[in-house]
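Quiz preparation item.
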């Protein structure tokens, strides 16, 4: 069996359950998701994609029907009111919740729903005579849950992070029963599914905590409420609130339907809603109030009471079309769960069995189980890749390579520092040290002292296909595996028959993959020997003189190079190097990643005539002045642009250059240059540098030095890759 065979649909079908939704999934994707052609979108846990029929039907709906403000009483307003009420009911139905027991409060998202609970929960502070409320949360929680601490600590309430193991391990033998004497309210929050690892936590925790059987409820008298953060869970899984009577369930709708964004809900048990204390009262929430006196009576309806102001009623109308489209395409959440779990399980099995030529595993996957069942694992895979010496490859490198292959993944810590720390083994001290080393959430500093600061997450949606897995696995094999690619067959076989008992890979030798057959590897190649080839990478002893052989400047960012032999240097490096850039119709900078034809434009700087020449084959050469400072204020528009996240002030170079570029690139473009009155400072300044360095439109630094050996290595790698490609 070769890699091609392992990466085929036949293999997939042998190991994973039902695929698709009865019809031809490829057809559905081509019809409803034509925009992802050529893209491997694997970031559904961050935002899934909406089908075209959703927005088409929605557009038709709101273009043909008049929806007024639901707080008015005109016919159009009543229609809106009734439609919104019907959709509330539909949301409850989706979660098998009875309107007698649950209400839907629309919010701007899951985070807003969490904030609503945080700010209205009747926290009781700790005093000398009373222990007070507890705010407990599983350490594997989203930032938006941990952030409730900001509210509770200000109110003197004790926050208790609880690790996933503690909940059951520290439970008491005897149920603690109803507490009639002490009514102190406590809140326990946990995710139904981790947005980091896709692990699903037992829904039975809800009743366990409410009945004070589980830790920490068993240790604290009072009334325990459970907030089940379902934002990640509900995107690919059914949730039945009859089975798990959580008190507060926050969700965001774009994670289920892809559209609309900016709309979420707090699904709340009606009896739990009764204890919430709201202070602010906005439009629509009052039964009556006086403007001149402190008199306010809230509305009897739970939703009305907590929805300050006018709800986003047109977005709520879109939910109807969201449900329609979802059920029409998939038949329901159970099917979605089966389908997406199969994709995740297959990807897990292959990625965790993939080995380098020397037998070292390629990926370290952050998971508790072995993807044995959709009841314990969602469609998320979180991992770091390793080189053939077992060293972690930083997530930024993986992210960048993936982008070149148009594979969209998420990297970093995923707004879940708790899970990140626990899986990656980052201590609190390390976290602080990483910050000192300049690493902040969301940046590209992926390794500090060789230790990862985050990881890579791949997640599936209901329209993900087997081809997505295939593309991703081929990408890993092609870019990050030292050839020949091997697969640990023993591990793979084990995983195929995995039961709940988790089993690690045993010491068996991985099999070498060839294009024809499998060979048992006779012996593991000692790693030391293969290391020698590269020499001692950390050696500082070699102090040799280097010779500068060529100088290239790139007058227009991302366009062709211009070779020079001696060249003036200015405060921003080589004069006119990356002084200009091309932007699209929306003013967004074009790079070769977005527009490959840029490399065919060959700009030249002609100093004697003070001109920048634009040339490309089959185009007339045109010129723009090198310095147009004098004209800046009169004929050229100053605009704001972004380069690598930095704000830069730029000036437009006029219509002639714009139409030349638009002709050549086949889309409306303009040529702009950095404003001469603007200084942009280098972000990643070495800590030793005392003065700051100013930059042109370059991404990171004034100069980029490349040695011949690196260029030759790349050339060699490219030609060998063409000779015997392992993958398609
Ligand atoms: C996405 C997510 C959130 C936050 O949702 P927003 O839409 O950003 O408000 C909270 N918790 C979990 C588990 C999530 O996956």
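Solution:
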């Amino acid at each position: 069996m070769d890699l091609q065979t392992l990466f085929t649909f036949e293999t997939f079908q042998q190991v994973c359950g039902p695929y698709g939704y009865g019809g031809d999934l490829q057809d559905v994707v081509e019809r409803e998701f034509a925009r992802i052609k050529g893209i491997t979108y694997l970031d559904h846990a961050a935002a899934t994609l909406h089908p075209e029929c959703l927005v088409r039907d929605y557009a038709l709906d709101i273009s043909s029907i008049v929806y007024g403000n639901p707080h008015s009483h005109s016919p159009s307003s009543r229609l809106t009111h009734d439609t919104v009420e019907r959709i509330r009911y539909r949301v409850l139905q989706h979660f098998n919740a009875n309107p007698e027991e649950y209400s839907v409060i629309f919010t701007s998202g899951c985070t807003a729903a969490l904030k609503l609970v945080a700010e209205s929960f009747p926290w009781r502070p700790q005093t000398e005579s009373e222990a007070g409320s507890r705010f407990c949360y599983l350490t594997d929680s989203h930032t938006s849950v941990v952030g409730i601490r900001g509210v509770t600590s200000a109110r003197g309430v004790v926050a208790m992070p609880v690790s996933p193991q503690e909940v059951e391990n520290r439970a008491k033998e005897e149920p603690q029963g109803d507490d009639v004497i002490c009514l102190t309210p406590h809140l326990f929050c946990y995710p139904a599914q981790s947005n980091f690892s896709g692990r699903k936590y037992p829904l039975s925790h809800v009743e366990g905590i409410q009945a004070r059987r589980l830790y920490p409820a068993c240790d604290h008298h009072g009334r325990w409420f459970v907030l089940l953060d379902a934002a990640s869970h509900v995107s690919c899984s059914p949730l039945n609130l009859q089975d798990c009577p959580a008190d507060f369930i926050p969700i965001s709708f774009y994670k289920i339907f892809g559209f609309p964004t900016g709309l979420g809900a707090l699904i709340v048990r009606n009896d739990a809603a009764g204890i919430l204390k709201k202070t602010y009262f906005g439009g629509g929430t009052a039964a009556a109030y006086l403007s001149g006196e402190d008199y306010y009576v809230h509305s009897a309806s739970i939703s009305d009471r907590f929805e300050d102001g006018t709800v986003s009623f047109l977005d709520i109308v879109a939910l109807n079309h969201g449900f329609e489209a979802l059920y029409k395409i998939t038949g329901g959440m159970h099917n979605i769960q089966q389908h997406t779990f199969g994709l995740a399980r297959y990807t897990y099995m292959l990625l965790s069995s993939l080995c380098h030529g020397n037998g070292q595993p390629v990926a370290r996957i952050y998971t508790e189980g072995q993807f044995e069942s959709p009841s314990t694992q969602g469609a998320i895979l979180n991992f770091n890749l390793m080189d053939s010496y077992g060293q972690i490859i930083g997530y930024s490198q993986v992210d960048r390579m993936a982008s070149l292959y148009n594979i969209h993944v998420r990297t970093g810590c995923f707004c879940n520092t708790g899970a990140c720390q626990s899986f990656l083994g980052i201590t609190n001290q390390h976290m602080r040290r990483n910050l000192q080393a300049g690493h902040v959430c969301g940046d590209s500093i992926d390794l500090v002292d060789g230790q990862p600061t985050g990881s890579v997450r791949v997640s599936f949606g209901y329209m993900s296909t087997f081809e997505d897995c295939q593309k991703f696995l081929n990408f890993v094999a092609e870019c990050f595996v030292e050839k020949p690619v091997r697969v640990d067959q023993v591990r793979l076989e084990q995983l195929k028959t995995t039961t709940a008992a988790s089993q690690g890979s045993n010491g068996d030798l991985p099999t070498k993959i060839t294009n024809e057959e499998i060979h048992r590897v006779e012996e593991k190649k000692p790693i030391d020997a293969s290391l020698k080839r590269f020499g001692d990478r950390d050696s500082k002893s070699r102090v040799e003189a280097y010779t500068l052989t060529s100088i290239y400047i790139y007058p227009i960012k991302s366009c062709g190079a211009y070779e020079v032999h001696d060249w003036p240097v200015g405060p921003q490096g080589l004069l006119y190097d990356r002084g200009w850039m091309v932007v699209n119709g929306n003013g967004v900078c074009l790079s070769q990643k977005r527009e490959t034809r840029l490399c065919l434009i060959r700009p030249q700087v002609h100093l004697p005539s003070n001109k920048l020449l634009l040339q490309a084959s089959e185009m007339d050469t045109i010129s723009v002045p090198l310095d147009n400072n004098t004209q800046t204020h009169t004929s050229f528009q100053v605009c704001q642009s972004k380069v690598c996240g930095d704000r830069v002030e730029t000036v437009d170079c006029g219509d002639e250059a714009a139409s030349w570029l638009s002709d050549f690139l086949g889309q409306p473009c303009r040529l702009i240059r950095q404003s001469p009155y603007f200084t942009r400072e280098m972000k990643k300044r070495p800590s030793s540098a005392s003065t700051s360095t100013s930059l042109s439109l370059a991404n990171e630094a004034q100069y980029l030095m490349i040695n011949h050996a690196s260029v030759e290595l790349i050339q060699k790698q490219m030609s060998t890759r063409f000779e015997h490609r392992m993958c398609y």
